[in-house]
Amino acid sequence: MIQLFYYSKAARNIKSKDIEDIIEVARRENIKRNITGVLIYHNSIFVQVLEGEKDDVYQLLENIKRDERCTGVSVLMEQIVDEPAFKDWSMGYLNAPVMGIGVKSIAEVASDLKDDDKWISTFVEECLKLG
Ligand SMILES: Cc1cc2nc3c(=O)[nH]c(=O)nc-3n(C[C@H](O)[C@H](O)[C@H](O)COP(=O)(O)O)c2cc1C
């Protein structure tokens, strides 16, 4: 199985109802596909960890790319894992401040990602601690 991290930007003004809708569908659909993970939303940026069989994860990613609520889906990291880190969460939801990784970090994802592998791995580690 794989674990994939991506980020995207909100394509429009996202209200808490939008997040509720996304999480509701995600929890329902991810159980069917054996996908687990976590969604983080803050300051118009989504970061999501998706875990599952590679084909399932990429099929879902295609859906998300077509979703009118977000734009500019960029994969941050993909790795093969034996066990899901979020095995109890068909899709968890977190605000960035809850994670203690700081609002600034999430904003940095959007503005300047290219060469910052170190930052990505720190972020990934922080996410995985939540699982
Ligand atoms: C940021 C974001 C994250 C999403 N995460 C999931 C998810 O984990 N699982 C899921 O089934 N749908 C998720 N969706 C919704 C999908 O984009 C899509 O609406 C859903 O898979 C249903 O697709 P369908 O109507 O083509 O079957 C997410 C949407 C957004 C905007």
Report on the structure:
With 131 residues, the chain is of the alpha+beta class. The protein has one domain (2-129): Alpha-Beta Plaits (2-Layer Sandwich). The protein has 5 helices and 5 strands; from the N terminus they run βαββαββααα. It has helices at 16-33, 54-66, 96-99, 103-111, 117-129, and strands at residues 2-10, 36-42, 45-52, 70-80, 92-95. A 5-stranded mixed sheet has the order 4-1-3-2-5, sandwiched between helices. The longest helix has 18 residues, at 16-33. The model is unreliable at 109-116 (pLDDT under 50). The site of flavin mononucleotide has 15 residues, from helix 1, strand 3 and helix 2.
What would CATH call the architecture?
2-Layer Sandwich
Tell me the helix content: 40-55%
Query: What summary fits the major beta sheet?
Result: 5 strands, mixed
Radius of gyration: 14 Å
Residue runs with pLDDT of under 50 for 5 or more positions: 109-116
CATH class placement = Alpha Beta
Number of strands: 5
Overall pLDDT, averaged? 81
Number of domains: 1
How are the strands ordered across the major sheet?
4-1-3-2-5
Topology of this structure?
Layout: E1 2-10, H1 16-33, E2 36-42, E3 45-52, H2 54-66, E4 70-80, E5 92-95, H3 96-99, H4 103-111, H5 117-129
Parallel strand pairs: 2-5
Antiparallel strand pairs: 1-3, 1-4, 2-3
This protein binds flavin mononucleotide (FMN).
Flavin mononucleotide is lined by residues 22, 25-26, 29-30, 39, 46, 48, 60, 63-64, 67, 69-70, 91.
